[in-house]
Amino acid sequence: MATLQLDNIRKEYNSSIAPVKSISFSVKDGEFLTLLGPSGCGKSTLLRLVAGLETPTRGRIFLNDKLMNKMAPGDRDIAMVFQSYALYPHMTVRDNISACLKLRRLSPDKIRHRVEDVSDKLDLNQLLERKPGQLSGGQRQRVALARALVRQPNVFLLDEPLSNLDALLREQVRGELKQLFKEQNRPVIYVTHDQTEAMTLSTKIAVLSDGFIQQLATPDDIYKMPTNQFIAAFVGSPGMNLLELNCQENEALLGENKLPLPRRRGGLNHVIFGIRPEDISLTPLSNFLAIKGKIYLEEKLGKEKLITFTLKNTPHFLKALVNIDQPMETEETSLYIPSHKIHWFNWDGDPNQPLEQRNRL
């Protein structure tokens, strides 16, 4: 059983640049951990630290309780798939896949058996004698994956491997990846800024921002219970509605509506109200909060449409995701919001306050 553990990892390039500030987590056999976040949040740097391509300024990296900080990349028994594929252009597909096995001095029979096995899994048998320049982007990606799988390492690292593929091919390869790594039953760390990849592939997600993990949880928990406003805004498509509201005693004011805050919260002057567009209904429902709105914009998305409403007696907008056949009032309509689907975040009224500090109430 393989276990990768990071303990308080920090990486500085000088006193003012630290893409990774303090990160700890562990990944075990069969777990698929995705590092999700915007560009510059430290996720690729973190992957390079695990691979041994960078040295941490502080903290420790363990594989099966063995300290790896000073271990050379080639000695870590870790396979990495790069965004750029990193294939040898002068070698055939067969030679690209088998190169690492030849360096390990495996017997020709073992090399042939492993290459044939991984080629069957990734449908590369017809491409083994071609060179990378003769392959499509999706085929090159499969070769890069095959080169990692053939090593049979303890840990797999993948750095945005699907970002160079078009949308249709990305969806196809994403499904293949999920099944492929489920069969491998090894720890996987996957880096992406694409939340769809993170939600569909992962057993758990670490949302990163500014060199810290903002939340580490299952995809379901990340989506349903974001711990701060940054995660609420970053995860979800279309994005969560987030409104800045004033408070009066233990209620938030939204136009003519007074919304009770969760539990007793004294001394709050401002809060952030959040609701996902798909949780808003245009059909009257009992025990749902009714808010008056008027259609501002309608966007058709195939079987659904995204409606942006202006709210009566407020400067706010709300977006609702509804069925494409949903009948619409031309003038004022009611939006029905389930109280158990509302997300509340604290806010001190300062527009410069970082979203990561606007924590869930």
Describe the structure.
This protein is α+β, with helices and mostly antiparallel strands and 361 residues long. It folds into 2 domains: 3-230, P-loop containing nucleotide triphosphate hydrolases (Rossmann fold), CATH 3.40.50; 236-357, Nucleic acid-binding proteins (OB fold (Dihydrolipoamide Acetyltransferase, E2P)). The protein contains 8 helices and 19 strands. The protein has helices at residues 43-51, 93-103, 108-121, 137-149, 167-184, 195-201, 219-224, 229-234, and strands at residues 3-11, 20-28, 32-36, 58-63, 66-67, 78-81, 155-159, 188-192, 204-209, 212-217, 241-248, 251-254, 257-260, 270-275, 288-300, 304-311, 317-323, 332-338, 343-347. The strands form 4 sheets. The chain has a 6-stranded mixed β-sheet, sandwiched between helices. It is elongated.
Task: Considering the chains and any ligands shown, give keywords for the structure.
361 residues; Rossmann fold; OB fold (Dihydrolipoamide Acetyltransferase, E2P); 2 domains; five-stranded antiparallel sheet; 8 helices; 19 strands
